[in-house]
Amino acid sequence: MNAIADEIARLFESAARAARAAAEQLGRAPRPAKDAALRAAAAALRARMGAILAANAEDLAGAPGLSAAYRDRLTLTPARVEAMARGLEEVAELPDPVGRTLAEWSRPNGLRIRRVAQPIGVIGMIFESRPNVTADAAALCLKSGNAVILRGGSESLRSAAAIHACLAEGLRAAGLPEAAVQVAPTADRAFVGAMLRGAGLLDLIIPRGGKGLVTRVMEEARVPVLAHAEGLCHTYVHAAADPAMARRLLANAKMRRTGICGATETLLIDAAVAPALLPVLVADLRALGCDFRADDRARAICPELPAAAAADFSTEWLDARLSIAVVDGVPAALEHIRRHGSEHTEAIVTEDAAAAEEFLAGLSSAVGMWNASTQFCDGGEFGFGAEIGIATGRLHARGPVGLEQLCTYRYLVLGTGQTRP
Amino acid sequence: MNAIADEIARLFESAARAARAAAEQLGRAPRPAKDAALRAAAAALRARMGAILAANAEDLAGAPGLSAAYRDRLTLTPARVEAMARGLEEVAELPDPVGRTLAEWSRPNGLRIRRVAQPIGVIGMIFESRPNVTADAAALCLKSGNAVILRGGSESLRSAAAIHACLAEGLRAAGLPEAAVQVAPTADRAFVGAMLRGAGLLDLIIPRGGKGLVTRVMEEARVPVLAHAEGLCHTYVHAAADPAMARRLLANAKMRRTGICGATETLLIDAAVAPALLPVLVADLRALGCDFRADDRARAICPELPAAAAADFSTEWLDARLSIAVVDGVPAALEHIRRHGSEHTEAIVTEDAAAAEEFLAGLSSAVGMWNASTQFCDGGEFGFGAEIGIATGRLHARGPVGLEQLCTYRYLVLGTGQTRP
């Protein structure tokens, strides 16, 4: 057992060292080379479509006990492979985030100081069995000049290997180091452990998946982590909300897609408007297939609503279910969010600019919205082109993590012989 | 023993929870209140001068076995207390970093997206026995809206408590929560352990001190760390260097102050100019009291130089000693830095812009300089007004950490009822 663990630790270390050397080369690669690699990888995905689908069929055959939802996430189709290829081409179209001047100033002694964007280095990506993440994450890391080691779910290893072959082909075609994109060379879970202990070898770990996976990574990693464990998002319907807008926004925020992290899980509604508005909101959502968990004040208005248990307001449903609490104004809404929220995304619906300002100023969440659907918390919707995830921690990046957030910075100090007094 | 550890863990947790509540209030405090607190604390430092010096005398009396250098760092004088007070007032003069709009754009659907600076939250500061760090770090955290728990060296506890009383007085005078600045309530080293394990309670740990302290914090912390373990800085004298400038810069970079992290530890010099220039550089530095560890190629030119041992090029001397290696051009200089450097600060001296560009592009250090002394790596010299440390990690902030780097960001999304398609 220890011999196997040692062997896996060695495998990881050797992958990470190759990734470091590749990162040094990729980090200085000009944009045309990176874009050529992405486009060649897209072409390879299309050319190897048959092999990718065959590998995916083997993965599916090897995992007969999966739930229907899990099976769907694992399944590749020609359309899904084509979407992956298009995704690579779209990342090639995005501006190069590396080398941007983020700030520049001069000092009285004549020194010019420039803060410039540079790649982070070597990123470890740990995710569950959605094979497309292999291509999406690799594309964003490649374009931002970072090497990446991808460890997907063990059920999708053959699919991941087939996709990875296309990325390797793209890197080769562009004269870039193949080790810039690697997939874990073993399905053994000890490889994840080696990644989590990989301080000095990895610069950053990005986990994507359910709360269990992300929480484990956050708790055990000795490497910085960029992630969100859950998105317990709130929509707060303020006393001065436009009722028609509140209906439209809540229906979208809750029901457009219930399984994404930016979906609203809890409705907070001001006591002043709840008697008139809450029954309409509930009827709208019920018609869309939503059910409810309501506090006593909400049930006093809509007695048919099921009572919320103590833990319900701290539960990310990721489903067609809405928690409802009646509150008294902005401070009470903020207090509820502080107690139950996950610092992801919260929205206020109001026509009262002062109330919106008070609400937004009082939040510490990664994203605060005014009169917009919480489902807009997304890198594409923010204009980032693509995202590798959403971060709710306090350091480096918060909210959608796109190409710019996959960069760090450094300083250039340009002098003419200045010495420090 | 376990009962004591449990009790200390409880002490830490209670301090951290009070800090969190204070941070929520301080994070929204307007600039005038924060500045008033800093100015009132400065006034209190002057008013309580006698008590502070008496507490410091007790600290000194209680630690008889200290080295002269350590004793000097621990000692307070009226001038040093006055400098602390002036430091607080200078931070009050700096712009408020909180609430700045870092970026703003609109989306085709009319959503306006704004990235704004906000405090990180609760910071843990672990440092050795320089009592002034108590005031300096507290001032920067306070101004940036962060609560801080300060754990200084156990030899300086009475001094730290006396200084802390002034900060508490300042916070009180300004109507801000006293728990925003706390000192560890116990000298027990287990408190440091509790801080290091404080994920969820602390958002960030900043260690300041020797390599041993910082390395321990980096290795053991389960909380993000912003720091540098060492500053193994290089000055590279390129073949096209102006000899007079090279002499001036190297003397300053090595000898202005030898004990700071931005001091140059290694001279790299191109083989093309070493025969003429190295003897002059060595003579200059020798006249300033520097000694040397040189590789074989340097000793072929200056045979009197002591030979460098294998580990010398990886040693941060922090003293009047210079490692010297002769290299062949920019790629070899970069390769040496990659193998031995600490990603802190490196400088090239050259009149050749293309060589400078090649050198700076090839670095991954936090700071790269052209024709300037590495000793300029400092928050004050960068124009930040003050710094809480230098960071050499890859995430969040690199180089000098000032008020702006003590902030994170969040997004405000301002809509007019948009729903996501």
Automatic annotation (TrEMBL), chains A, B:
<dbReference type="InterPro" id="IPR000965">
    <property type="entry name" value="GPR_dom"/>
</dbReference>
<dbReference type="InterPro" id="IPR016161">
    <property type="entry name" value="Ald_DH/histidinol_DH"/>
</dbReference>
<keyword id="KW-0521">NADP</keyword>
<dbReference type="GO" id="GO:0005737">
    <property type="term" value="C:cytoplasm"/>
</dbReference>
<dbReference type="InterPro" id="IPR015590">
    <property type="entry name" value="Aldehyde_DH_dom"/>
</dbReference>
<dbReference type="InterPro" id="IPR012134">
    <property type="entry name" value="Glu-5-SA_DH"/>
</dbReference>
<comment type="pathway">
    <text>Amino-acid biosynthesis; L-proline biosynthesis; L-glutamate 5-semialdehyde from L-glutamate: step 2/2.</text>
</comment>
<dbReference type="InterPro" id="IPR016163">
    <property type="entry name" value="Ald_DH_C"/>
</dbReference>
<feature type="domain" description="Aldehyde dehydrogenase">
    <location>
        <begin position="12"/>
        <end position="289"/>
    </location>
</feature>
<keyword id="KW-0641">Proline biosynthesis</keyword>
<dbReference type="InterPro" id="IPR016162">
    <property type="entry name" value="Ald_DH_N"/>
</dbReference>
<protein>
    <recommendedName>
        <fullName>Gamma-glutamyl phosphate reductase</fullName>
        <ecNumber>1.2.1.41</ecNumber>
    </recommendedName>
</protein>
<keyword id="KW-0560">Oxidoreductase</keyword>
<dbReference type="GO" id="GO:0050661">
    <property type="term" value="F:NADP binding"/>
</dbReference>
<dbReference type="InterPro" id="IPR020593">
    <property type="entry name" value="G-glutamylP_reductase_CS"/>
</dbReference>
<dbReference type="GO" id="GO:0055129">
    <property type="term" value="P:L-proline biosynthetic process"/>
</dbReference>
<dbReference type="Pfam" id="PF00171">
    <property type="entry name" value="Aldedh"/>
</dbReference>
<keyword id="KW-0963">Cytoplasm</keyword>
<comment type="function">
    <text>Catalyzes the NADPH-dependent reduction of L-glutamate 5-phosphate into L-glutamate 5-semialdehyde and phosphate. The product spontaneously undergoes cyclization to form 1-pyrroline-5-carboxylate.</text>
</comment>
<comment type="similarity">
    <text>Belongs to the gamma-glutamyl phosphate reductase family.</text>
</comment>
<keyword id="KW-0028">Amino-acid biosynthesis</keyword>
<dbReference type="GO" id="GO:0004350">
    <property type="term" value="F:glutamate-5-semialdehyde dehydrogenase activity"/>
</dbReference>
